[in-house]
């Protein structure tokens, strides 16, 4: 995830661009920001630089903190700055909140997004020859092989197929459908679980029209 802070904002609080750091990074080079005349930009890995992962019912949250603090001394004349950065993987929604304490400014940024998933047809159960044509023309009762894969740098994620339906229309998956997988239970698919990948096989069929 990426976090950018305007240098003018830091200067308005009495800080320079080099004062802003990830305190739990341990000095790692990958945790250092890119500094320009207008912005300080951190590219924060999902696994590293002190990033914390929290799994809830509807979201997976990755969070970290950027800090700028006054130098040690007896007298403190300006506030410490803590910028809390979070990435919640769910849907495209932005929520911004700011907390101000007597000696600390707390800034929280939360972004909602979807995971990116690819799905492909393959010609055999070896899943070595991907079908590149669209639409994919097949014979009735021919076994179809599909692979779904989640695209994300967090290798600990598992892909679970909850529902898969067939429809005679590419734009309508509600009026007339046939369940292949429903609530995680295979109806027509033979599914093999993989970490970050699911591979399945199902016989092809055609919808009856009067």
Automatic annotation (TrEMBL):
Provenance organism: Equus caballus
Annotated ZP domain residues: 1-210
Record keywords, A-Z: Disulfide bond, Signal
Protein's UniProt name: ZP domain-containing protein
Source organism superkingdom: Eukaryota
Record-linked Pfam families: Zona_pellucida, ZP-N
NADP as UniProt keyword: no
The UniProt record lists the keyword Signal: yes
InterPro entries: ZP-C (IPR055355), ZP-C_dom (IPR042235), ZP-N (IPR055356), ZP_dom (IPR001507)
